[in-house]
């Protein structure tokens, strides 16, 4: 989000020109959409971009002009836009928040390195294995209530549900501690710099 202060209202915004100098660690910008709101008049303009501003992707341009979406376009694309927003947020959230996926495709704004993400994944995997070993081969009471049965092949009893619940809670707590330690060390590292 950018906040640009002007001493007067913006008036009617018809188009938007964006450019950058293609420098920095990640010079490619993907531009999804831009929303401009005049804080004085409360007018809102939407620009649906869906393109790259990059010298090495798509058309190789780092400067582009976009036209504001008209009211009838916004109304006709409202359902498509809401579906697009839901899909965009879902895919972004999945990539940013899912620890296993973020190893392969880390979010650009995250301070965690790929090595730190891999170490979190390995601690999660090893912790899951260790806790499941602790609950392995616990004698099951033959008289315990069966919650779900799939013929004679497989049945789910209350003891199994109990053990798996405690395993999941144990893994979650240990993993949460690992993440908090990692967050704390990153905050400490940034304060030192």
Q: Could you explain the architecture of this structure?
A:
- The protein is of the alpha+beta class and 193 residues long.
- The chain is 46% helix and 20% strand.
- It has helices at 71-76, 78-97, 99-104, 114-134, 158-192, and strands at 15-19, 29-37, 44-53, 63-67, 146-150, 154-157.
- Strand 2 (29-37) and strand 3 (44-53) form a beta hairpin.
- The radius of gyration is 26 Å and the shape is elongated.
Principal-axes shape call: elongated
Query: How many DSSP E strands?
Result: 6
Q: Determine Rg (CA atoms, Å).
A: 26 Å
Unreliable spans: none
How many separate helices? 5
User: How would you classify the quaternary structure?
Assistant: single chain
- Report the β-strand fraction as a percent range: 15-25%
Main beta sheet strand tally, sense and closure: 2 strands, antiparallel
Q: How many domains make up the 3D coordinates?
A: 2
Strand order of the largest sheet: 1-4
Element-by-element helix/strand order: EEEEHHHHEEH
The percentage helix is 40-55%
Provide the residue-averaged pLDDT.
79
Task: Please give the alpha-carbon distance between the first and last residues.
Answer: 26 Å
Structural class from helices and strands? alpha+beta
Organism: Mastacembelus armatus
Domain PLAT: 1-67
Protein name: PLAT domain-containing protein
Pfam family, one: PLAT
């Amino acid at each position: 989000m950018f906040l640009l202060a002007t001493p007067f209202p913006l008036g009617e915004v018809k188009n938007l020109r964006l450019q950058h100098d293609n420098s920095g660690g990640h010079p490619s910008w993907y531009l999804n959409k831009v929303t401009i709101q005049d804080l004085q008049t409360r007018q809102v303009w939407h620009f649906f971009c869906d393109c790259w501003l990059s010298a090495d992707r798509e058309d190789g341009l780092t400067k582009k002009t976009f036209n504001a979406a008209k009211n009838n376009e916004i109304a006709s694309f409202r359902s498509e836009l809401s579906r697009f927003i839901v899909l965009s947020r879902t895919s972004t959230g999945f990539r940013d928040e899912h620890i296993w996926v973020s190893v392969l495709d880390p979010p650009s704004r995250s301070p965690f390195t790929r090595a730190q993400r891999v170490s979190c994944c390995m601690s999660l995997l090893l912790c899951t294995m260790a806790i499941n070993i602790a609950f392995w081969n616990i004698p099951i009471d033959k008289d315990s209530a069966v919650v779900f049965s799939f013929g004679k092949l497989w049945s789910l009893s209350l003891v199994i549900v109990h053990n798996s619940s405690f395993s999941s809670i144990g893994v979650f707590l240990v993993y949460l501690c690992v993440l908090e330690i990692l967050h704390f060390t990153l905050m400490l590292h940034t304060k030192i710099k």
